[in-house]
Amino acid sequence: MFGSTTNPSHRIDCGCREVCPTESEQSVMSAKTAEQRNSNQYPIPETMKAWILGGPEELSLVDKPVPQPGPAEVLVQIDAIAVCATDIEVLKHGMPAMIEGQLPFNKGFTPGHEYMGTVVKLGPTVDEFAVGDRVAVEIHAGCGRCPRCREGMYTSCLNYGWHSKGHRANGFTTDGGFAEYAINNVNTMVHIPDTISDAEATLIVTAGTAMYGIDVMGGVIAGEPVVVIGPGPIGLMGVGVAKALGAQPVILTGTRDSRLEMGKKLGADHVVNVGREDAVAAVMRLTGGKGVNYVLECSGAPNALNEAGHMVNRGGRICLAAFPHEPVMVDLAHLVRNNIYVFGIRGEGKSATHRAAALIAQKRFDAKLIHTHTFPLSDVPTAIRYARDRVEDAIKVVVRNRAELSG
Fold first, then answer.
1. How far apart are CA 211 and CA 38, in angstroms?
2. Rounded to an integer, what distance in angstroms lies between the CA atom of residue 171 and that of residue 164?
């Protein structure tokens, strides 16, 4: 079970709630990284440290062989990875992870998917990237052969979970990022500039998920009113993305004032604490009784879809980006009578990471605001506990590998 702890007493107090490297570690780390990038020399060991999933909520740190890239693949040295709520679902329930049609338990599987890193080795035919490139990754590569992948909907791959048929989704159906290295297909990576920090780069996947739901699937255009339900990581990134795309107004609803205030910093025009005011009534008040064109539902609350149905106007659209834990009752008659469109999203499809990375690089919103805690790779269980239990109001918890290079 999760139980590892970290003693932060020898770390710098930098003013944030992170486990940060010491000054000497930072100096050595920076010099070593710069030297490596300039020379394009990255010694690659035969084995690496990686966390593997045993039974439910059983993680073990082991030595695994460093994987080798094939055609159209690269080896990524993982510099940082964020903990996602879906990681916690995978560790506890297995789904939505699946390996050759089975749950991922006791298969030597490494979870984790919101990572970034440095390209350290190229597979045959790769010329899209070079050794030394900093990259952020998206999860799904798809199989490339099914009708959905051929349509560009690789997040809905019909061969999901079957690596033998070419499908890859790192951290779900193939080994993920709670390790020192991972293999990525060239179509799952985006270049990131040095102006984006490692921790901030891990948030590109989170922002990309919101982007996919808002622009491609949702069709939101400038000037349209938007509601975001739930100020978790995807919801907060949804606020930033919606505002960057010109939505007006952007309304954020939730239960925690601290997160609602963060939503304001990311661009929310109005925030509603649903513990003090009915969410639907508040949206109607703020829109003069007209409702909104679009709702991004990120809470997974049992009644969230019904509330969203009464927030949107006729012909409005609702995107479901969260997993309810139990089946829920939905007023379908209301949705049908009012021609309301409801759709779910899975991951950051249609190359949304590229668009999200562009907005973050352009400083259209400050993604790093939601990064609250950092831990080393050796302390993944504590990082997961902070994210799961919201210790110290944790929002986005990042696991960083770079500090461990200094040793």
1. 34
2. 16
CA distances from 135 to 73, 114, 241, 360 (A): 13, 12, 21, 14
On whether both 59 and 178 belong to a single domain, the answer is yes
| In a shared domain, residues 180 and 282 | no
pLDDT digits (tens, 9 = 90+) for 16-33: 444 454 444 444 444 445
Q: Answer yes or no: do 187 and 211 share one domain.
A: no
Percent of the chain with pLDDT over 90: 81
Provide the pairing of β-strand 292-297 with 312-320: parallel
Q: What's the CATH code of the domain at 264? A: 3.40.50.720
Domain residue limits at 324: 207-344
Q: Return the SS3 of 41.
A: coil
Quick one: pLDDT at residue 19? 47
Q: Which of 389, 274, 406, 381 is nearest to 52 (CA)?
A: 381
SS3 79: strand
Compute, in degrees rounded to 10, the torsion defined by CA atoms 73, 47, 51, 236.
Answer: -40
Dihedral pair phi/psi, residue 140, rounded to 5°: -90, 130
Q: Tell me what pLDDT residue 11 has.
A: 34
Tell me the per-residue pLDDT of 88-146, one tens digit each, with 9 for 90 and over.
Answer: 999 999 999 999 989 999 999 999 999 999 999 999 999 999 999 999 999 898 899 99
Q: What is the 3-state secondary structure (H, E, C) of 178-230?
A: CECEEEEEHHHEEECCCCCCHHHHHHHHHHHHHHHHHHHCCCCCCCCCEEEEC
Question: What is the model's pLDDT at position 295?
Answer: 98
pTM score of the predicted model: 0.87
Strands 312-320 and 341-344: parallel
157 and 212 together in one domain: no
The pLDDT tens digits of the residues spanning 173-184 come to 999 999 999 999
Interior/surface letters 334-364, b for 16+ CB within 10 angstroms, e for the rest: ebeeeebebeebbbbbbbbbbbbbebbbeeb
Would residue 352 count as lying in a domain? Answer: no
Question: In this predicted structure, what is the pLDDT of residue 32?
Answer: 47
First to last CA, the chain: 28
